[in-house]
Specification:
The strands form three sheets. Strands 1-2-3-4-5-6-7 form a seven-stranded mixed β-sheet. A five-stranded mixed β-sheet has the order 8-9-10-11-12, with no helix packed on it. A two-stranded antiparallel ribbon has the order 13-14. It contains twelve helices and 14 strands. The longest helix has 25 residues. With about 350 residues, the protein is α/β, with parallel strands linked by helices.
């Protein structure tokens, strides 16, 4: 199903279903002008996504020789069909340099093995990690092959007909997520950086010391842009983008303080134990009943928040000996930690 969501520039949205996924759908945006087309993201590499994507593309009667693809970040629900879609077409695939290079490390360089080891050090069992190999959509619905792409830097531009779009690097959700912004129309494609009825998952990444800190800085960066229309990659937008930024900032401060409370009563805990004590949207299910893949996302988010505390001297991590899990402790009292967090949050205030 396609819907026109913006008139000038002409922007359509192809609704791509994401079966068995809490995100529900991907909003695949298609920008058209003067016979040129730019598609934003693709959906998973699975039949349901491919059918919806190709049906939408066919309905829009695009000129394949003048069609390019912009990938906002390397998660499989955004890039899974990239080589399939662009095979035989004349245009290019565009992606931020940082995320493209990281994707190569994942698909070609075996970075998953390092990530698996990190999560086992945080309390996952080897059996759970093996199970996740089939349950994690980023591993099951990735592109059929590693593909060539033109790498973009912050501040680069893309044109569609007479329209020019600025590329904005917003690390955090992934190491190099990138957004498109049309300044004259004050139009921003927010990808997974800003979602409006769910909070973007901020997890840990190998060789990225502070993904949450990167994300919060990126939120503040986007707040400096003049935005009238914000188009997210999932679900809908029914809020003012600046209000939503403040809500997300408040969410992460609350989450950090939750972790401080857990560590104050359970010092020396690993990330899995800490995550079980936090408030998650589980729809009435217990932690054990929660799908393993969702527990993996929750623990990754917990680890990112722990990294934020460590990078600011408010917590410390002790690596366990071989076969033992890591442990975390506060470096100051819980009251002092929360006071310092409140002070830190002034840098994110408008």
């Amino acid at each position: 199903m396609i819907t026109k969501v913006y008139e000038n520039p002409r922007v359509y949205c192809i609704d791509i279903p994401l079966p068995e996924n809490s995100l529900r759908n991907l909003n695949c945006y298609v920008i058209q002008d003067s016979g040129e087309t730019l598609i934003l993201d693709t959906g998973f590499n699975r039949k349901e996504c491919l059918d919806a994507l190709m049906e939408g593309v066919a309905e829009l009667h695009i000129n394949e020789e003048k069609t390019s693809l912009f990938l906002t970040h390397f998660h499989s629900d955004h890039i899974g069909l990239a080589p399939t879609l662009m095979k035989g077409k004349g245009g290019k695939i565009y992606m931020s340099r940082i995320d493209y290079d990281y994707l190569e490390r994942v698909m070609v360089g075996g970075l998953w093995k390092t990530s698996d080891s990190d999560f086992m050090a945080e309390g996952f069992t080897e059996e759970q990690i093996i199970q996740l190999h089939s349950e994690n959509p980023d591993r099951g619905y990735e592109p059929e092959e590693f593909f060539a792409a033109e790498r973009l830097e912050n501040g680069d531009t893309l044109t569609v007909g007479k329209w020019t779009f600025q590329c904005i690097l917003v690390p955090g959700h992934t190491p190099g997520q990138m957004l498109l912004y049309q300044p004259e129309e004050k139009l921003l494609f927010t990808a997974d950086h800003i979602l409006f009825d769910i909070t973007p998952n901020i997890t840990v990444w190998v060789d990225i010391p502070d993904s949450l800190g990167d994300y919060l800085d990126s939120l503040v960066k986007i707040r400096t842009y003049d935005i009238e229309t914000a188009l997210p990659a999932h679900r809908k937008n029914d809020k003012n983008v600046y209000v939503r930024i403040e809500e997300i900032l408040a969410h992460h401060l609350k989450r950090l303080k939750e972790i401080v409370d857990v560590l104050s009563v359970l010092p020396g805990s690993h990330a899995v134990t800490i995550a079980t004590k936090l408030q998650w949207s589980m729809r009435g299910k217990s932690w054990e009943e929660f799908p393993l893949s969702q527990r993996w996302f929750a623990v990754g988010e917990t680890m990112a928040h722990l990294d934020y505390l460590i990078c600011r001297g408010l917590a410390k991590r002790k690596d366990g000996e071989k076969g033992k899990t890591r442990s975390y402790d506060l470096t100051v009292s819980s009251a002092e930690c929360k006071k310092k967090l409140d002070m830190l949050w002034t840098q994110y205030s408008r």
